[in-house]
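for the writeup, i need someone to sanity check this before i put it in the appendix. the sequnce is what the collaborator sent (i think, or maybe the updated version? ugh). structure was predicted straight from it, no edits. if anything looks off just tell me and ill rerun, i have time this weekend
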Amino acid sequence: MTPKDNIIRRNAQKDSLINAVPHHSPARVFPHLDDVSELSVACYRTDFSASRIAHAVEDAEANLLNMNVTDRVTDRGEIIIDLRVSHRSPYAVARSLERYGFYVVEFLGMNPDDDDADTLSERIGELLAHIERV
């Protein structure tokens, strides 16, 4: 253990990483990432469990990137939790969260039809590239 006299205190004004983004700014709490979805779920405070939410997200083959309990409350007294997950489409995660007893209030992500269109266009491009080689 380091004696308290030998602890070096960092100068926050010289440390560019600390000063780059304020500690509680949205850019630091929710940094920009590609291929993510955002969901807001509601539950009563007594039913809140971060581990249950994480299990529900992982059951949908996604990773939980951010979870923040907000100051918003529903008309029924439920708290709102904002989530960000590593899935382009939030639908599978939303279904899993509802199976675990959480009410999905809103979500933002790619429409599954858009994902199908992307897959189709990729497959057509691969087919054309294969035909050109033959």
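The longest strand covers residues 64-73. The radius of gyration is 21 Å.
thx in advance!!
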